[in-house]
Amino acid sequence: MLNLSRRQLFKRSLLASALSAMPSKLLAGTHQSLYIPPLMETRRGKPVFLTMEAVQHQLDEGKFVEVWGFNGHYLGPTIKIKKGDFAKLNYKNNLPQPIAMNIQGLQASGELLGGVGRYLQPKETWAPILPITQSASTCWYHSVSLANSAYQTYRGLVGMWIVEDDESRKLALPQKYGVNDIPLILQDMRLNSNGLQLFQQNQNALLGNRLFVNGQEAPYLKVPRGWVRLRIVNASLSRAYELRFDDDRTFQLIAQDQGFLPQGKELKSVFITPSERIEILVDLNGGDNVSLIAGEKRNFLHKVTALFADENELIENTVLELRPEGLASVFSKQEIRQFSTDAVQSLSNKVAQEQHFHFDTSTGMVNNKHFDPKRVLNAKLGTTERWILTSSSPMGFRIQGAKFIIESINDEPIDQAAISWKDSVWIPGKVQILVKFENTSSNNHPFIFGSSNLMLADKGCIRLLVVQ
To answer: What is the distance between the terminal CA atoms of the chain, rounded to a whole angstrom?
Structure first.
């Protein structure tokens, strides 16, 4: 008979508890092939139908639960459109709550974007027609309902936009959607034993212990050998990620939010804040399987001990395992890509005025004031303003209907090779940006700016913006 001390028994009990708490497919080492959201291309005036509704989905394997999504799927389709075309959208709300939708990063007027000035009541439809005027970029759509955006986004009202232009189509970049141009929507969640999403309102943040990519946990994808392009949206409510590959290989960061960098930037890790989008290129011409991960590389024991170390730590930090197949590509030359952008030249724009905004992450106040829908910031169309952003603790920031370039972070100037048009940024303490206003909004259809942590935004850490 095996005699166990109390300490040994306690350790074994903890291990058994940890193993039972781990998702079954992770414990078994089985993974799903990555789900690729349907692609909807808006060509020849073809309308895009987006019906918001409750759907059945397995977040925990084998446990179908009710979540929200579009057109019968968890999450929404990827909408692809070209600069110069018109996007004919047709929203329908089949959910029990009023919903305000935003297309973060899309450059359009407040009236056409929707946002907090355009709620869809249950059973209501809305069909805006949006002219696409911006250069190639990756955007995303999600709920921005005042005081309820976090819950509605968390439930699954999320999707990606891809904007192309003539120049981007001619670039020697991977462009086969779902094959070598891969959409990745990151979300962290908490689930109960039945696989249902756990959500607590009126908190300053939500940090889940489960990481989902396109609605799946630690999926894999078979890809052709050669360069692969990953378009990544951080759709988490509060969590920022440090992404890297588990073999510590380099990759190229080529785009952020609203456009390309002047040239690809070789990195071994990249930081992405809530609401931010990045595009990276990774060379899979040689070698074996490789995984994109969030944080540091882990072994199985680390995953088990993570259950006890910190309740906010991710149980599994694999974003996606890439499994290259086929013959090596002849187009595998290692080179730094060059891109055309006017972002750097905008550093010399005339500054109309300078504004200071301080965000208190404990109270949700902006400049020591609680949110008031009657308090509106006014900006003049066609101007550029310098905004100095500070926060009581690190947080994400985003602006709707406008775009900016970063001048400095914590008073350290940004390398010009890293400058691109953005609408979301992490504030580690202080960030200085140049904001360009090219789209109109009104008191009835204002833009918003403030915390990209949607939990904090729902507590009022946002402001309304009118551009005329």
So the answer is: 82
Beta strands in 326-443 (DSSP E): 351-359, 376-379, 384-391, 395-399, 403-409, 412-413, 424-427, 430-436
Residue 122 one-letter amino acid? P
Q: How many Cβ atoms from other residues are within 10 Å of residue 202's Cβ?
A: 8
Q: What is the pLDDT of residues 245-265, one digit of tens each?
A: 999 999 999 999 999 999 999
User: What is the tally of helices (H) and strands (E) in the chain?
Assistant: 7, 33
* Residues 244, 269 contacting (CB under 8 angstroms): yes
Distance CA 283, CA 409 (A): 30
Calpha distance 351→436 (Å, rounded): 10
Of 2-11, 68-77, 154-163, 287-296, the one with minimum mean pLDDT is 2-11
Contacts of residue 429, Cβ cutoff 8 Å, sequence gap at least 6 = 390, 391, 394, 410
Mention every residue, 6+ apart, whose C-beta is less than 8 A from residue 7.
none
> Is pLDDT at 24 greater than 70 in this prediction?
no
- State the pLDDT at residue 1: 42
Contacts for 49 with CB less than 8 Å, ≥ 6 apart:
71, 90, 92
Mean per-residue pLDDT, 385-411: 98
**Mean pLDDT, residues 96-121 taken together:** 98
Nearest to 41 by CA among 139, 162, 179: 162
> How many angstroms separate the CA atoms of 154 and 24, rounded?
23
388, 430 in Cβ contact below 8 A?
Answer: yes
pLDDT in tens, 71-82: 999 999 999 999
Q: What structural domains does the chain harbor?
A: 39-170 (2.60.40.420), 181-325 (2.60.40.420), 342-467 (2.60.40.420)
What are the backbone angles phi and psi of residue 95, rounded to the nearest 5°?
-105, 165
Instruction: Please write the tens of the pLDDT for every residue from 214-242.
Output: 999 999 999 999 999 999 999 999 999 99
